């Protein structure tokens, strides 16, 4: 039914803004002044294009209907006119200049990153985002939380299929936030349509952007630059909170971090590590090495029956902690805390028939990572 | 054993007909044979690249992963793009140039016939190598047809080296083809065929050939830098070694933007030949058409970074590339207005070539207008790398370049084969293609604006309806091309005989030759008696 409506709507070519909002035909105006001026620019240039199209296609249609041989039309002999050529060179030129002014004004505003009240560093990883609140000692990764069963059609898909993460980026309303963007591996692009921010995250370089969201709520976007296999599976979710709520959230989030530090001091049983390791593995590792540890031939090595895991315990731990330079294998020491690292290594050493039976403790990881 | 032709022309018996068998095609230096080879090769690539597009659209028919894995999906988008650009569109234009340019300028053949043979025969090897990567461990190139570093260097599958070598071979082929076309047009015109009498197809190809010579070495340079980064320890595109991944994009798009015009200028030329014929009226503004084409070609060198508005260019750079890009709308507009003015007060009929040409003008203009929207840098931040861009460039490449190629094939087919194609079948092919193309690509504007990024194998539920429409359209469009193939085969085997003129109002030297055009034409230069510029009537 929805398909029929969509198709009808399409064939009628209706593009009124009301329909556009309901059927998601158009850009969203967004939640900041900048995003609204981008929307206005978009609509302005769109209407100019429609007007040009109506005139050009109108004359063409007129000719097709009335100047056809089957209606007895005789061909005229005119074939050039310098005056006409000059006119239809100048008119588009004037329209373009008129268009250039508002476009430049918005662009200049978008480039003005001064006087921000909060700075967030955004780092792209294959295939997740890392958010660091600069000067706040808060730093976390944001990973797709849609279950693999939904993607492989074994479960019905949820409302926010592929646009949901474990931890969203939280921003305060009405404060100017500056983003510093970079990447750990390949080029990614951080895009949140509601803020009209799209900026590439480039390894080795830092890009700047800014936004001042005005309306609390949850907003969703996606990575916009092809970054490898799971490019389609690294969404961006931003939660905008009212200013006071944001301050409370920030304090609470920092407290959670110190809880995690305490957990690392506890003694962990093999079962507890395996249970935690499985969930970490699914979020962090299964994208490449696959849920069953089989990897993908020629691209991502298998972990099941891996000689490294079975014969070289030190090498296994070292690879997880420090990655493998020049390949997609990242250094997870910077991404996960010592409990998660210990859990996932333990899991890999015992899952899918690897059955080494040994476990790696958080304390051992901490010792290895101490400078 | 002498053929009847040799009996009739005993003096020419060494030159009058092609050698028999396979050797004719391997060793040929005849521009018509080589033109046919290019066109058949391009058709084969169109079908292969088209099948890959159907794999993509089948996967995107519904949300969720059904048919292919994400890594294979990326190989499909990459190979589809590379094959269509370098295998289908460019060789088709070179094929049409080979067939038509010597006949249009009154030359006996291309200026450099042996090089002509070589530039074609490189292509099957280049594309065999490229397609073979699909069967290698690690798979085919999976980094998009734009192959941005470091995804295409440090993080690439091992097959990237084969890809680089294939691109080098295609580049050599294109450069040799371009040199040949320039040499033919500048040196082999019949006496009296002045530059401003050249048909527009010849003019647009002359300008395209200069673009090719200018930018194919840049492409060769950028893939060589990749090769060095991958195998010889350099760091052109690796920040860790002092390089810059954005440098890749600057060099690539310095090639890539003129490349876009390489794929559309000859199309402008083709419709500028066809519209006057079926409007029975001379092309409006011949001189301005030549100037507009040249301006577009020159401007194409100073707009490349509009593909890179989000990489973090400085504000001044952003402004410069925004304004220069908007400026291209002016000469492009002049061309569209000229075509419309040619139809205006003409006496039109609507044979298949004309239908494809009219659809070209309308749909290319839609693609041009969305291009104007993309030029507005602040708005481009919302459009960039979404399906809006996919809609835009498919509108200029499919109902743009591809429709023009089909228009050209239907237009000149009776001259090549001596038979008319089946007009009803041609019209059915046109209407199915027209409906299919619009059903496929128009909804992509909407899903792009609604926020769907390009090059993703799976998508959120709000994009589902229009993706389904697009996939249905793609299958209609894809399978209707089989009608085209059938019509071509039928026409090659027989059909209503065509006379020399073929079309009631066709004007130009190629229509003074018998249909089918003899194996050797204009061994004696023709007399040029038209006092007025050509480009049609």
Please tally the β strands of chain B and state the result.
0
The chain pair forming the largest interface, with residue counts per chain, is: A-B, 105 and 104 residues
Q: Which regions of chain A contain 5 or more consecutive residues with pLDDT less than 50?
A: 9-21
User: Topology as H/E string of chain A?
Assistant: HHHHEEEHEEEEEEEHHHHHHH
Rg over CA atoms of chain A: 28 Å
Q: Count of helical segments of chain A?
A: 12
End-to-end distance of chain B: 44 Å
SS strand fraction of chain A: 15-25%
Task: Indicate the percent of residues in helices of chain B.
Answer: 55-70%
Net shape of chain A: elongated
- Specify the structural class of chain B: mainly alpha
Average residue-wise pLDDT of chain A: 88
Multimerization status: heterodimer
Low-confidence stretches of chain B: 1-14, 531-537
**Largest sheet entry of chain A:** 5 strands, mixed
In short:
With 371 residues, chain A is α+β, with helices and mostly antiparallel strands. Chain A has 12 helices and 10 strands. Chain B has 537 residues and is mainly alpha-helical.
Description of the structure:
The complex is a heterodimer of chains A (371) and B (537). Chain A is an alpha+beta fold and 371 residues long. Chain A has helices spanning 2-12, 17-23, 33-66, 82-110, 148-151, 243-263, 270-284, 286-289, 307-311, 313-322, 338-350, 362-369; strands at residues 118-125, 128-133, 138-142, 169-172, 177-183, 188-192, 197-201, 207-211, 217-222, 235-241. In chain A, the strands form three sheets. A five-stranded mixed sheet of chain A has the order 3-2-1-5-8. In chain A, a hairpin with a 2-residue loop joins strand 1 and strand 2 (128-133). Chain A is elongated and about 90 Å long. The N and C termini of chain A lie far apart (63 Å). Chain B is mostly helical. Helix content of chain B is 66%, strand content 0%. Chain B has helices at 4-8, 22-27, 31-59, 70-105, 113-132, 160-187, 200-231, 245-262, 265-279, 286-299, 315-343, 352-375, 377-383, 387-417, 423-450, 464-493. At the A-B interface, helix 1, helix 3, helix 4, strand 7 and strand 9 of A face helix 4, helix 10, helix 11, helix 12 and helix 13 of B.
